[in-house]
Amino acid sequence: MGIQLTAIHYVYLACIAGILALLIRRRDTTIICVAGIFLLGLLATGTLGGSVSGIFDAFIYATKELMGTIMIISIVVAMSRVLIRTGINETMLGPLMRFIRTPAVAFWGIGLIMMITSFFFWPSPAVALIGAVLLPVALRVGLPALGAAVAMNLFGHGIALSGDYIIQGAPKLTADAAGLSAGEVMAASVPLVAVMGVVTTVMAYWLMRRDQKRGTWRDGQIAEPGAAGGLSGGEAGSGEGERGQRQEAEQVSLSGPVKKTLALLIPLLFLADVVAMFWLDLQGGQATALVGGTAVLILIAVALLAHRGRGLEKTTSYLIDGFVFGFKVFGPVIPIAAFFYLGDSAFTDLFGETLPAGSHGIVNDLGAALAGSVPLNGAAGAVTLAAVGAITGLDGSGFSGISLAGSVAQLFAVATQTDAATLTALGQIAAIWVGGGTLIPWALIPAAAICGVSPFELARRNLVPVLTGLAATTLVAIFLL
Q1: pLDDT band at residue 234, thresholds of 50, 70 and 90?
Q2: Distance CA 84, CA 416 (A)
Q3: How confident is residue 476, by pLDDT bands cut at 50, 70 and 90?
Q4: Is residue 392's pLDDT more than 80?
Q5: Is residue 352 part of a domain?
Q6: Distance from C-alpha of 160 to C-alpha of 116, rounded to nearest angstrom
Q7: Is 453 helix (H, G, I), strand (E, B) or coil?
């Protein structure tokens, strides 16, 4: 492929290996991420000042990129707090309790609903919608918060996003790079997405039940989950302030008819959001913004009704609680996000044009180099496409490297006379499952934050199922070539 690897590429790769090793050992990764940013900055700028300031600049870059997700999580949590305190969530969730009575039904029910919703609106806004309504029900019937996060994550950011059959953003990118039509790639991806989805989710559920029976299950909670991951009565406070919050929570009350009216109206408002997303073709950030704005309006209305004369002050208090939760969850993730963003365009934005001519970013260069160093046959092509997709997914976006996967698939298909569409679909699936939000810790934030669990614990819980699924999917692809 003509890609020249430099010390920058090797340092980045070594840091990734170190990060993965620490994650497997359940250790924190902040220091190694900061060290990686420092070393990359030193190699790029050649100056101590440039590398030191690069650490701060990388943190700022990551925070800007994540701000939309931080905001939607914080706002939904703030809304959830007022629904919990007023008892509206109890009234709203009552009917669902009739259908969701066991952890198994909760796991598969949440997953399937998440998948269907994500097909139409992508996973991030879907997480907020599903978590706000179904998470409390799942917790009551015994599904752990981390189990709910796994279900939302694998079905949404895994199955739905890797297929992307409705919005078709992913298949269009890979198909264009491979010289194919989006329809060809989608058709070829159906059996691969099905195998990946079934193997991964069944493995994840089996491991969860096994560990629960053995007593080795770790829920990884960083806050007690309520509706939509909302904090419990005193999570954001301490001391006298915490006790005051609990006392005040007990005093908040609404009449039965008002609760029933709001319990009906709130789901209808979110349903209206879903209709608006479909009708107005809102996707990604626009869809998330619609959900966030609706949550703010619900928060204000309920706070004014519940607290009356103190409604103005309590609205601000709920928002503060939500933001405290949001930044508490994102605090450990910003350093690792800052490092992985350097694998893509952030490196040039922060350190200038210091990569070799023709470079398409560190992770894309590594993927291309791998593709150029393996023997050309069908089986090797399938394994290489899975590896290239996984490597390019390490920047955490899932989408930045799928064009490379498409171009590499075309190269192998021509050289080996195999099916380009199947290879392209395999690369797409690997990139999105790894980088779209099932293995890279900072990409797991939406589901983890909604459920009040650590994104690192969620990544560890997903690791074996996703790797097993990728192996099975690659094997199926080899037979389909």
Answers
A1: very low
A2: 60
A3: very high
A4: no
A5: no
A6: 7
A7: strand
Q: What is the pLDDT of residue 396?
A: 65
Write out the residue range of the structural domain in which residue 97 sits.
66-164+226-331
More confident residue, 69 or 259: 259
209-218, 408-417, 427-436, 451-460: least confident range = 408-417
Indicate whether 15 pLDDT > 70: yes
CB 182 within 8 Å of CB 171 = yes
Local structure of residue 437 (DSSP, 8 states): I
Percent of the chain that is helix, strand, coil (3-state, to 5)? 80, 0, 20
Structure tokens at 251: 């005093």
Query: Which letter, b or e, does each residue of 89-110 get, where b requires 16 or more Cβ atoms within 10 Å of its Cβ?
Result: bebbbeebeeebeebeebbebb
What's the CA angle centered on 162, arms 184 and 276, to 5 degrees? Answer: 100
Tell whether 11 is covered by a domain. Answer: no
- Number of compact structural domains in the chain: 1
DSSP 18-29: HHHHHHHTT---
Total-model pTM: 0.68
- Determine contact, residues 444/438, Cβ cutoff 8 Å: yes
Q: Is residue 402 part of a domain?
A: no
* Alpha carbon separation from 46 to 38, 41, 351, 358 (Å, rounded): 11, 8, 10, 21
Gap between the Cα atoms of 228 and 231, Å rounded = 9
Cα distances from 428 to residues 189, 217, 220, 369, 456, in angstroms, run 9, 32, 30, 18, 24
Closest CA to 412 of 444, 373, 442, 463: 373
Q: What is the pLDDT of residue 93?
A: 65
DSSP 436: I
Q: Please state, in angstroms and rounded to a whole number, the distance separating the CA atoms of residues 405 and 175.
A: 10
Which region among 101-110, 444-453, 467-476 has the lowest average model confidence (pLDDT)? 444-453
* Predicted local confidence at residue 1, as pLDDT: 46
Q: Give the type of residue at 236.
A: A
Q: Structure tokens of 434?
A: 């790894």
- Concatenate the DSSP letters of all residues of 127-174 into one string: HHHHHHHHHHHHHHTT--HHHHHHHHIIIIIIIIHHH-TTT-HHHHHH
How much is the pLDDT for 207?
95
Helices (H), 87-122: 88-97, 103-121
Name, in order, each residue with C-beta under 8 angstroms of 1's C-beta and a sequence gap of 6 or more.
Answer: 368, 369, 371, 372
Asked, for residue 233, whether it belongs to a domain, the answer is yes
CB neighbour burial string for 229-239, b if at least 16 within 10 angstroms, e if fewer: bbbebbbbbee
